[in-house]
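quick one
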Amino acid sequence: MSLNKTSDNDDHYFYEPALGHGLPHDPFKAIVCPRPIGWISTCDSKGRANIAPYSFFNAVCDAPPAVAFASDGWKDSARNIAETGEFAFNFVTHEHAQLMNRSSVRFEKGTDEFSEVEIERRACRKISVPCVANSPAVLECKLMNIVELHDIEGRKTEYKLVIGQVVGVHIDRAFLRNGLFDFAATRPIMRAGYRGEYVQVAPDALFTMLRPPESYL
Ligand SMILES: Cc1cc2nc3c(=O)[nH]c(=O)nc-3n(C[C@H](O)[C@H](O)[C@H](O)COP(=O)(O)O)c2cc1C
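structure w/ flavin mononucleotide:
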């Protein structure tokens, strides 16, 4: 019996995730791809700094500006945010690739991960959390909600969706050109589909397309 409701004659490979994908590797993250990396800095209730990357991350609204990431269980970042109500998003460029990757190591709780990974820090303004000193953009966030995700059968999953309102924004003036954040010039990296894969955004990747005027009605 095939787990996939498809045949060799179908133009589209189809599967129901609940029954298995039937491929050598799960394609889900290659389909929702590339994903921005939320490099999330926090402090625990004793003020010890923590930083880790999260690619189940995105902006979720702009009035007020808010971002969210999903933690597979109560990892230190989510736990710290539940305790303190604060976190910072640090924009990740190609320059940070190795440090960002190293910061995904599960250090013992309470380890100062900025020191451990040798990431230079500076203070945020509206929250008591450090941010990455040379990140070209930082969003200071205060906790709105932590949603414990349930599946369509009502079963609790391991995932905690942490949603934060942006209360402070830092932009490196070197990338502020004619009043625009030249994000592509920073060469951001994003998570791609499969194990160890990343995408680097270069300025020539950019194109402009305005929405049809009637779409704003
Ligand atoms: C690029 C990248 C993206 C990641 N995205 C996630 C994610 O979205 N959710 C998650 O739970 N873990 C993710 N991880 C793993 C965490 O970074 C890792 O478990 C880390 O130790 C968590 O640190 P913390 O306990 O200090 O929060 C990611 C790792 C990398 C390298």
